[in-house]
Design a protein that fits this description.
The chain has 3 helices and 6 strands; from the N terminus they run ββββββααα. By secondary structure, the chain is α+β, with helices and mostly antiparallel strands. Among the domains are: 88 residues, no CATH class; 33 residues, no CATH class. The strands form 2 sheets. It has a 4-stranded antiparallel β-sheet, with no helix packed on it. It has a two-stranded parallel ribbon with strand order 1-6. A hairpin with a 7-residue loop joins β4 and β5. It is elongated and about 105 Å long. 10% of the residues are buried.
Amino acid sequence: MAVSAAMPTAKERPRRTRTKRVSALPALKLSKLLPSRIDLRDPLQAVLVCEDCGTWVPITGINSRVQKLVPHHTGKAGVAAAIHCRSSNRRVEFDMTLPEWRQALDDAITEASSRTATTVLPKAFSAETDRTLRARAERTAAGRVADWQAALPRVVDADKARRAVPAGDTPAEARSVPTDHLTVQRLAS
């Protein structure tokens, strides 16, 4: 669809918040935050993670006297109710320079990478395990049936040997087992 002069267009909106309001909460100091929760790669478009709602929020007024967080909501857009975050318009103190922030971020990345394993090596197989796995992979259903048919006579012989009763029914030096049914009798009171 082509744009004609008769079609309305959205006017350009200001990119920074023009409010003099400031939150009553104490100012956020960048040195107190984790370096991974601050993004100063482009200082004119700096963002950080809001401590209250956990969302990435731009910092406004970088070139002015007071830097603060942009007013924002706690819920997701279009899902939850639009509730203003209490850290909206909260002052931000730049108490560290860009090189200090980069150094802190590099240190945090180095520390995190030293905690994680770099390579996972599989456990080595023994020769016997390798042979067993290969033989199991090569077996077919017909081969398994044939193996069971070959083992069946030995299984039957073992079952017969288990069912056989020994020659003597009681050990020679033991007391005989009582065969009378025992009942509990009450004492006469």
